Amino acid sequence: QLSASKFCEWLSAMTGNYYRLPTEAEWEYACRAGSKTAYHFGDSPENLADYAWYESNSEGKYHKVGQKKPNDWGLHDMHGNVAEWTLDQYLPTAYRQRTNGVKNPLTPGDKVYPKIVRGGSWMDAPKRLRSAARRPSSKKWKKRDPQIPKSKWWHTDAPFVGFRVVRPVKTPSEEEQKKYWMYN
Predict the structure, then answer these.
(1) Are β-strands 161-162 and 83-89 bridged in parallel, bridged antiparallel, or unpaired?
(2) Of the residues 7, 47, 149, 166, which has the fewest C-beta atoms closer than 10 A?
(3) pTM for this structure?
(4) Rg of the chain over all Cα atoms, to the nearest angstrom
């Protein structure tokens, strides 16, 4: 997640536009594309292969983005292919702690683990690809990192994780921008 966030900071500097990782709520909103079902295309995983690379059709690897059908908002690979980093710290009870009326909640955290990945990956079963499915990151994703101490950049055992960037319509203040880049 740190590498993905730093990429967003670099991309912002190179383009003059602000980019960051999505919050968990933003990610789910984009995935659902207005739906209220388990997957953006319905509740049954019956047609999942039309929209996603996952354990049954991926041949044990990720694939080039855009080869499957997009959701209703034109976003590809929201289910499967690679799980995607969000800004949020993983708290198993986060949804129970939120009150109604909160728009785009963020669970910031100062710990490296666990952070949240969403969407499932090429190696996951259909239930991990549901729009609401959440997965915490793990120290095990660095198991084969040869550096001592382990690098904060290297996730040798997580080839199933990637990221998607957000460019807000309204560019936040410089202070707000830095705040979002620091959630890692």
Answers:
(1) parallel
(2) 149
(3) 0.92
(4) 16
User: What amino acid is encoded at 21 in this protein?
Assistant: L
Phi, psi of 126, deg, nearest 5: -50, -35
Cis peptide before 149 (omega within 30 of 0): yes
Amino acid identity for residue 27 in this structure: W
Residue 156 has what DSSP assignment?
T
Which tokens is 55 given?
Answer: 């354990």
Bigger pLDDT: 152 vs 28:
28
Backbone φ, ψ for residue 14 (5° rounding): -75, -35
Pairing of strands 115-118, 134-136: antiparallel
Rounded to whole angstroms, the Cα distance separating 73 from 99 reads 28
